[in-house]
Amino acid sequence: MAEAAALAWHDGGCHCGAVQFAVSLPDEITAQACNCSLCDKIGFLHLIVPKDRFDLRGGEDNLTEYNFNTGTARHLFCKTCGVKSFYVPRSNPNGWSVNLRCLNQTEFTKISLEPFDGQNWEDNAAHLAHLA
Description:
By secondary structure, this protein is mainly beta. It has two helices and ten strands. The longest helix is centred in the first third of the chain and has 6 residues, at 37-42.
């Protein structure tokens, strides 16, 4: 059996710096590039993690929430700059999806992107369930 990859905390945040967080990830990561109506427009690259690997370190009072469709996902945006650094995904409501673009990508030894067909979410959501 393969040994689990070591995890390290990586700092992230929104554009203006009002919202700060950290996420525990391995040095080699795979992010999902979703083509749903929201992710496609804002360029969100998903790193889905369990709740215990995410730490909101500042700016909770500067977050605003947007919900649509089933209302399960909690889309969180900085009130100042409008950046969506992370959110609670519908596919993993007990975890977090962090936007790879809000982390220092030079800290990783390897970054892979895999497409995710969010336009047909109902048919494909089960492919994300194992991530958190």
